[in-house]
Amino acid sequence: MTAHGTLTGKIALVTGASRGIGRAIAQRFAAEGALVVATARSIGQSDDEPGTLAETVSLIRRQGGSAIALAADLEDPAQRDNLVAQAAKAAGGLDILVNNAGMAEYSRVEPMPLEIFDKTVEHYLRIPFVLSRAAIPLMRTRGAGWILNLGSVTALSPSRPYQDFDRAGGVTAYAAAKAAINRFTEGLAAELEADNIAVNSVAPSTAIRTPGSERYIPDGYPTEPVEYLVETALALCSVPARLRTGHIAHSLHFPLAHGLDVRTLDGQGMLPPPVIPSWAHPGLNHELSAR
Which of 83, 94, 205, 291 could bridge 250 with an S-S bond, Cβ 3.0-4.6 Å? Predict the structure, then answer.
């Protein structure tokens, strides 16, 4: 099953692929012909949240795509350090790395335990650093590559006057780590452009409801469909670095700015063009200048 075969012959490692955004990216990339190595802490059920790697791989295969499940606990240094090599061995190489996995434990700074701060930095900066570092030589041997980091709109500075959300706090450490991964993305893009390895970041323009984020999103809050972010991810992982690298992209703004057709996760259907809601961060409007 290939919608257009944009990623035919490519091998993609997607972390945090048992549910949510990671599963959606894995499904869409497989629909475009990629062999997806889907990774998370375990292949079967491991916690109280719905979704497993086995389900992700089964879904992809039922739709005619190719996927491999590879369990790895990214908080375990040995498993983390060996993941990229194991994925490349299992699949026969590596072209695309999607650093999606993470944990979010929101807390105001004053009462935040240092353990939670350390885990936040580990998941959103150290782990992408380690996996990217391991992936670079593998991509270089194949003559091209793509690294995609998952960002967050919270990386943007709070608007003034401060909104109730910002005054309530809780996302400061998380947002700081996401701002750091954006700067890491831009710097690594400059380092690797000559190697034809693209490095980009993608984030929701507003919020996407997933099993991991649901507890932080108020009931009734208008979230956006995941397909817009996934289509942006595909666009950032299918164009040579000389044409598209160092982008800090957002799910609704990027497709609108670049005139992308947004497809369903199986690649067979179409979604309407994105509409930027009034509550989107005004700092994102610069992306629309590319139109």
Answer: 205
Task: Give catalytic residue positions.
Answer: 174
CA distance 130 to 133: 5
Asked if the structure places residue 226 within a domain, the reply is yes
Residues 179/172, Cβ–Cβ less than 8 Å: no
- Please report whether residue 4 resides in a domain: no
pTM of the model: 0.94
Give average pLDDT by consecutive 10-residue segment, the chain, 291 residues: 80 97 98 98 69 95 97 96 98 98 92 97 98 98 98 94 90 97 98 98 92 66 92 98 98 96 97 94 82 50
Element (H, E) at 45: none
CA distances from 188 to 97, 108, 173, 176, 200 (A): 14, 31, 22, 18, 9
Print the domain residue range for 77: 11-285
Task: Give the CATH number of the domain where residue 39 resides.
Answer: 3.40.50.720
